[in-house]
From TrEMBL:
GO terms for molecular function: lyase activity; magnesium ion binding. Keywords: Lyase, Magnesium, Metal-binding. The keyword Oxidoreductase does not apply. Substrate binds at R73, E137. Residues 11-236 form the HpcH/HpaI aldolase/citrate lyase domain. Mg(2+) binds at E137, D163. The keyword Translocase does not apply. Gene3D superfamilies: Phosphoenolpyruvate-binding domains. It comes from Hydrocarboniphaga effusa AP103. Pfam families: HpcH_HpaI. This is Putative citrate lyase beta chain. Its cofactor is Mg(2+). It comes from the Bacteria.
Amino acid sequence: MAAERKTFSARSWLFAPGDSEKKMEKATAGTADVVILDLEDAVTVDEKPKARKLVSAFLQAQAEQARSRLWVRINPLDGPHALIDLAAVMPSKPGGIILPKSRSGNDVVELDHYLSALEVAYGIAPGSTPVFALVTETAEGVFNTGTYKGAPRLVAMSWGAEDLADSLGASENKNADGSYGYTYDLARSLCLLGAAAAGVAAIETIHGDFRDLDGLRKRAVQMRRAGWRGMFAIHPAQVDVINEAFSPSEDELVAAREIVDLFAANPGLGTIGYKGAMLDRPHLARAQQLLKLAGRT
């Protein structure tokens, strides 16, 4: 996998069911950084053959450059549909593959083998199809969030609260105040830590109430400050809110530039006073990271 894959950045990841050409068109016409053509949860078993054909045809109808933002969520590797999904969509050269219910970094390695063979078969540049792993949708996956360092093709990781609840046999995953229960907050934190250890982007899971844009905005801002680099969307109305929340504000950028310039002007100092506070090298690193993120978005 090329080194530049590690700097892949996208703020909004909008799901569109693969069995609805109308919804795929609407999602693609919007402002989402990435559109996910879904062959998994959004499609019933009986409709999966139809969805594969629709997704493949939809990809082929797009200009090659436009396909870079059209990713496909296949079905889990340990089920009967994943290889059929890949065989159906890879000839149409999707921008990337989203792997659900990943059990560990070994699943990404296995997926890499399949993609490598399919890239050769269909004249696609070797190693050019990136992978995004959903890593906490099963109890097993939660234990293995730290196993993704060095996984080939991997550019991002996310967590899932709904499928995890199913895996645990839970009837609810939230507290009375609407916050996630301890087990799910733990899964979220382990995903963030796993992504940092792997050197890839951490993407926050969905905000289920697509009408609650104020709640979405508040949550998205909190997540970016915590280290997340983007968020899933389930409705086009959520996309602009997510894009704004995961884009540094002008005030943040001004402060970051001032901090970087201050350290550059005083290369021999480990700590520097700035607006009444003492800053050290970790503050410089965060300022540099924020400017880098702004440049990518």
